[in-house]
Every structure is written in C-alpha cells, then in structure tokens.
Amino acid sequence: MDKVIWGPNWEELLGGEFEKRARDRNLEAMQKEMYGSLKNTFMMYLPRLCEHCLNPSCVATCPSGAIYKREEDGIVLIDQDKCRGWRLCISGCPYKKIYFNWKSGKSEKCIFCYPRIESGQPTVCSETCVGRIRYLGVLLYDADRHRGSGEHRARS
Q1: In a domain, 85, yes or no
Q2: Which residues does the UniProt record annotate as the domain 4Fe-4S ferredoxin-type (predicted)?
Q3: Which of 5, 84, 151, 153 is most buried (CB neighbours < 10 A)?
C-alpha cells in the first residue's frame, strides 16, 4: 500500500475492505477467516475513573511532584504545567487509572469533574450512568427504620 486510503469513518467497516486488505502489507499474513471475524468485534467507551485514594501511590511515585491531593475534598489531580511525562505515575497507580497522552506528552486521569463539583453539579459519570449505580455524597442509613425489611413476616 503506497498511500493511506481514508474511509468515511475510522471505526466503520464498509464494502471493499477485502480489496484494501490485499494491498496492505501489514495484513498479508493474516488469514481471510480471521480478518473476517474482526467485523464481529465492537467498540465501547469505558471510563477510567480514578479512585482518588486516601493515600495515593501515584503522588509518591511522581518525581516532578505534579500529582497532588486537594486538602478540601481529597480529589487527586495532575498539574499539567509541572508534569514532565516520565510516566512513573502510570506504573505507580495500582488501579491503572492514569494514562499517557502521547499528543501532549503528559499524564492524564479522571479529575472527578472538580469544576462541576465546585459549581454544585454532579459528576458526568454519576449523571449519565445508565444503571444509576454511581452516586455522589454520603448515603445515610437508618438501621432502625430498615430493621425488618429483610425478614419474612408471618401474616396474622
């Protein structure tokens, strides 16, 4: 393949893919059956939500001191001006939530939507969660109120 042939959409497989495959040196050794099974794969958005740990190891592993934990709310952030792109924080995070942006040359992570939090709005992940399993804030539980909810009550 001498030049890159662009399609209408990067993720979209259209007719003529097998024609393009024959000209692609990277796919020469790939069997047609295996290549045909690639059309059965799918793409999805999987958010990499930071845990905002109580004692974050990414803060300790960052040699430039770019990662810090805010005292007022415990949100862990990366100062993009201080980040030197050494990527030690990526291996330091036990949950692998920090990723490297190759375009900017800096590490990035979930910022817990702190601009939204400061303005009183919920995070985007909690607002758009389809299953409504992400909630913000403290959930108060009154044990006396819910005492018999799990017990089977005999009818009188």
Answers
A1: yes
A2: 41-72, 74-103
A3: 84
Which amino acid, 140?
Answer: L
Do residues 69 and 38 share a domain? no
N residues, the chain: 156
Residue 28 confidence (pLDDT) above 80: no
Q: Is 85 left (phi over 0), alpha (psi -120 to 50) or beta?
A: left
**pLDDT digit string (tens) for 34-57?**
666 666 776 666 678 899 999 999
Is-above-0.70 flag for pTM?
no
On whether both 11 and 63 belong to a single domain, the answer is no
Task: Look at residue 97 and tell me if it is in a domain.
Answer: yes
Give CA–CA dist 119/141, Å, rounded: 27
Give yes or no for a contact between 126 and 136, defined as CB atoms under 8 angstroms apart.
yes
**DSSP per residue over 67-136, as a string?**
EEE-TTT--EEE-TTT-----HHHHH-TT---EEETTTTEEE---TTHHHHHTTPPPHHHHH-TT-----
Map tokens 């893919």 to a residue: 17
71 and 14 within one domain = no
Tokens describing residue 25: 């040196």
